[in-house]
Structures are given as C-alpha cells and as structure tokens.
C-alpha cells in the first residue's frame, strides 16, 4: 500500500516474473487491486502479492478505492485465508508529509487497527543513491520521531525499514513479512465488517474517509458562497465569467463529495456483490487483452516469415540469373574478362547478402518466438492467479456461472 508514486508496483516488479503496470507519473500506475503470484524459493512456498491503488489516485475517488480494498480484505478473511501483512511504501524523496501522505497514513492505521501493527512494515523507498543516503536517513528518523507519522505505529509494533529499489531489498522485506505470519491475525476492517457485521461507513476507515469528505464539503460550500458573492459584485464581464467557471468546478467537486459519501453507505453483502461483478469484468478484459497480444504476436511472426521467404526468393532469383549469365558466357565467350569479373563479384555479393539476410531473418523469427513464448507464459500465470481470485474473491454461484461462459477452465480452478 501507499500513495500514488510511492513505488508499490515497482516493488512487486522486482519479485515477480510478470508484467506489472509501473507508473512513472501521477496519472499512471495501479488503478485497481491486482494479484501477483510469487514463488518463495528459499522456503519452497507460493506467495500472493496484492498491489493496491493509491488513495490519492487522480482517476478514481478515495471512496471507490476504499471499497475495492475492503472487498479484497474481507473476502480473504471470510474464506479464512490469512493475510501475512501489509508493506506500506513511502517515497523518501517526498521531503515533507504532504496532505495525501498523511491522509493515506491515517487510513492505513484505521484499516489495520493497533493489534495488527506487528504485521505491518513501514518501508521508506530510498532509491539506493549513495549521494542522498545521509539525507534519506535523516528524513526516515524524522518520520519515526513524529507520533502522528510513523512514531505511534512503530511504538505499537510496526517494523520500520528501508527499501533501496533492488531485488535483494524487496526479498528481505518480503521475508520479514511472511516469516512473521500469524494465522490468527485479523485487520480492523476485516473484524468490523465480517465479525461485527458493520457497513463500510461504520468502520474506522470508513469514518476516517467520512470525516475527510465532511471537511471537503464544508470547504467547498464556503468557497462556493464566496465566489457567488464575488460574482454578484463583479462588473467586468471577463471576471464574472471566470468566477462562474470556478464556481461550477467547485459545485462539481461538491457533487463528487456527495457521491463519495453515498458510495460508502454499503453493507458487506452488497459490497461483495458489487465489487465481485466489477472484478469479473476486469478479469475478463484482462484475459481478452492477453489473448489479443498473443494473436498480434502470431500475426507479426507470420508477416516476418512471409517477408523472409519473399526476400530469399528475390535474392535466389537474382543469384540464378547471374549464374546463368556466367554459364552462358563460358559457353560462347560473350563477356570480356573484366565483365566476367564484375558478374562474379555481383554474384558473390548477392550470395553474401542472401546469407546475411537469412541469418538476420532467422534471428528475427527467434526473437518473435521468444516473445510469443514469454507472452504465453504470462497468460498462463495470469490464468492461474485468476483462478485463485475467482475461488477467493468472486465465489458466488451467479458469478461462477458467468465465468463458465468466459473460460470454463478458470471456473473449474484449472
């Protein structure tokens, strides 16, 4: 977990042999919860890593993201599948705790609850540059020294560590997490929604988000009132129009806040039905995208093979014509010695070019075969992970019946 740009997907990419949607700016990256399989060679066990979108995602509301994360965590808990813990990543290059960081951290605390703190790792993503190591350590100490930042969580049992963005660092953090696994661990939002049958807005995380929504609505209403007053007193047409546009934007923001408030007024059963169907649609799209990639790679291979055959045919024909010219000249001496040498040189050049292009074509074909094999392996891995997701998260009879139409082997758990 972590805000957008904290390095969540990059962390997972270091561990799994799969394509992870790594974002390079605030408009890209993980937009939905996604599972990845990882084989722990040291302990010969399979581990599933769950990548989550940041709560400051520019494309989705915090309410939508909270619902999806809550659905994932409660589904695991209902199926009695233990969550080893949470790795919360923070980009140390963010020199100060911006509003999105503090909001995300408060939400993390509410989702986990103090009893689960020993199963949370707070990882400072340092990037691994020796030039900034001293500065990064200073920032990390500041994070831990503030109770409202990492201090209270560390005091409650959270592990604090650094991540230098390499495989060894990611593996070390993962081992720290899974080695401390306790099957009795339950996170606050799991207990609240499953054991206590609370609706999402009545959980600690829901109340925290509701508080933020309430604050945002109050600020927006106040700003809208001020803009309306300024608009009434404005005499210049351009200023009046600009104020009207600002007011309209804020009214849209107020509408989004109202929609977020309504979105989290949801019970566990309704949440499971709603999010289960949405996940089904996403997985169906992902499967189709993987099939499309394989089909396109096969087309690329066929086109490359056709070009290679055509080029070999052209060069073979050119070589044959030159060879016939030499043969005919040898019979009737129609070419001078100089002309004979020129034709011989041309023939050698054509034969050399044919050999070079054949080797290059074979190299291209090998590259395309490797790409297709890699894509097929990724498709099979995603299919295996998808099978697990369906059994764990999308397990109702209605949805499984729908899955059969998409891919029966997934529904059967193959």
TrEMBL record:
Region of interest: Disordered: 305-339
Bias (Basic and acidic residues) ranges: 305-321
SUPFAM superfamilies: P-loop containing nucleoside triphosphate hydrolases
One MF term in the entry's GO annotations: GTP binding
Sorted UniProt keywords: Membrane, Transmembrane, Transmembrane helix
Biased composition (Polar residues): 322-337
Domain G positions: 2-65
UniProt name for this protein: G domain-containing protein
UniProt superkingdom: Eukaryota
Chain segments annotated as transmembrane: 388-406
